[in-house]
Automatic annotation (TrEMBL):
<dbReference type="GO" id="GO:0019509">
    <property type="term" value="P:L-methionine salvage from methylthioadenosine"/>
</dbReference>
<dbReference type="GO" id="GO:0017061">
    <property type="term" value="F:S-methyl-5-thioadenosine phosphorylase activity"/>
</dbReference>
<dbReference type="InterPro" id="IPR010044">
    <property type="entry name" value="MTAP"/>
</dbReference>
<dbReference type="GO" id="GO:0006166">
    <property type="term" value="P:purine ribonucleoside salvage"/>
</dbReference>
<comment type="subunit">
    <text>Homotrimer.</text>
</comment>
<keyword id="KW-0660">Purine salvage</keyword>
<comment type="similarity">
    <text>Belongs to the PNP/MTAP phosphorylase family. MTAP subfamily.</text>
</comment>
<dbReference type="InterPro" id="IPR018099">
    <property type="entry name" value="Purine_phosphorylase-2_CS"/>
</dbReference>
<comment type="pathway">
    <text>Purine metabolism; purine nucleoside salvage.</text>
</comment>
<dbReference type="Pfam" id="PF01048">
    <property type="entry name" value="PNP_UDP_1"/>
</dbReference>
<feature type="binding site">
    <location>
        <begin position="214"/>
        <end position="216"/>
    </location>
    <ligand>
        <name>substrate</name>
    </ligand>
</feature>
<feature type="binding site">
    <location>
        <position position="191"/>
    </location>
    <ligand>
        <name>phosphate</name>
    </ligand>
</feature>
<feature type="domain" description="Nucleoside phosphorylase">
    <location>
        <begin position="8"/>
        <end position="245"/>
    </location>
</feature>
<dbReference type="InterPro" id="IPR035994">
    <property type="entry name" value="Nucleoside_phosphorylase_sf"/>
</dbReference>
<feature type="binding site">
    <location>
        <position position="190"/>
    </location>
    <ligand>
        <name>substrate</name>
    </ligand>
</feature>
<comment type="function">
    <text>Catalyzes the reversible phosphorylation of S-methyl-5'-thioinosine (MTI) to hypoxanthine and 5-methylthioribose-1-phosphate. Involved in the breakdown of S-methyl-5'-thioadenosine (MTA), a major by-product of polyamine biosynthesis. Catabolism of (MTA) occurs via deamination to MTI and phosphorolysis to hypoxanthine.</text>
</comment>
<keyword id="KW-0328">Glycosyltransferase</keyword>
Length: 261
């Protein structure tokens, strides 16, 4: 399943990744879509030999909170720029015992607890009602490329986890985290949805590259502080960047999925 032509790979950077060092920048493109403006101009560049479009999810500087990100504009802008494979980098809280701060996690499932966010492209004056398949929210081959790169670079990573997407911007209560845990969530974050489903609606491959930046509420003996989050970002982001760099060529070779009709 390899494509002839290397389409640009999209990287959506979150907390701790508003710019991508190592990206050789070719141009910056302010863009606009029928859903409004994306969070920031699209940064076109090269990571190694692969062309990349980088988008800062919260804007640059970081100013748009998770519940106010225009996810539709972000995904549409990447699609309009020719991107067919997207890596969403997400800072997350760790719930499962082996998912402590600075751990890299590549989830394979999600549960959506967000509400009130525009979460579909299929609305308004439609010709037909569409229900996309979302059994496996994260692209299998894209995940394998990241897992392979992590293994090659010696970056410890968890290759199977359930991502619980919460509304934010506040962090959760300890009881809410216990509930997520009972539901089967291993990590928790505020930006994984509707980003993943919107990419699926446009027929794009989407993979989440998570970095645990704190123990989720009630999972440690202290409250969550920004200092702790910043320390974990400092410790873990180099591994995330290494995985991105080392996986790019393989991601770029993935064939586009059939476009939804
Ligand atoms: N909860 C929700 N979102 C997050 C967390 C958390 O603990 N840490 C980073 N993003």
């Amino acid at each position: 399943m390899k494509a002839e032509l290397n389409a640009p790979v999209g990287i959506i950077g979150g907390t701790g990744l508003t710019t991508l060092s190592g990206l050789e920048i070719v141009g910056e493109h302010p863009s606009s879509t029928i859903w409004g403006e994306p969070s920031a101009p699209l940064v076109e560049g090269r990571l190694g030999r692969q062309s990349v479009i980088f988008l800062s999810r919260h804007g640059n500087p970081h100013r748009i909170p998770p519940h106010q990100v225009n996810y539709r504009a972000n995904i549409q802008a990447l699609h309009d720029a020719g991107v067919r494979t997207v890596i969403g980098v997400n800072a997350v809280g760790g719930i499962r015992e082996d998912m402590g701060p600075a751990r890299v996690v590549i989830p394979d499932q999600l549960i959506d607890y967000t509400w009130g966010r525009p979460s579909t492209f299929f609305e308004g004056d439609l010709d037909a009602v569409t229900h996309i398949d979302f059994t496996w929210p994260y692209d299998h081959e894209g995940r394998q490329a990241l897992i392979h790169a992590a293994g090659g670079a010696g970056v410890p990573c968890s290759d199977s986890a359930v991502y619980g997407a919460t509304q934010g911007p506040r962090l959760e209560t300890a009881a809410e985290i216990r509930r997520l845990e009972r539901d089967g969530c291993d990590i928790v974050g505020m930006t994984g949805m509707p980003e993943a489903v919107l990419a699926a609606e446009l027929g794009m491959r989407y993979v989440c590259l998570g970095l645990v930046v704190n123990w989720a509420a009630g999972k440690s003996d202290h409250i969550i502080t920004m200092a702790e989050i910043e320390e974990a970002i400092e410790q873990g982001m180099s591994g995330v960047k290494r995985i991105l760099t080392d996986s790019m060529a393989e991601l770029g070779r993935l064939s586009p999925l059939p476009q939804p009709s």
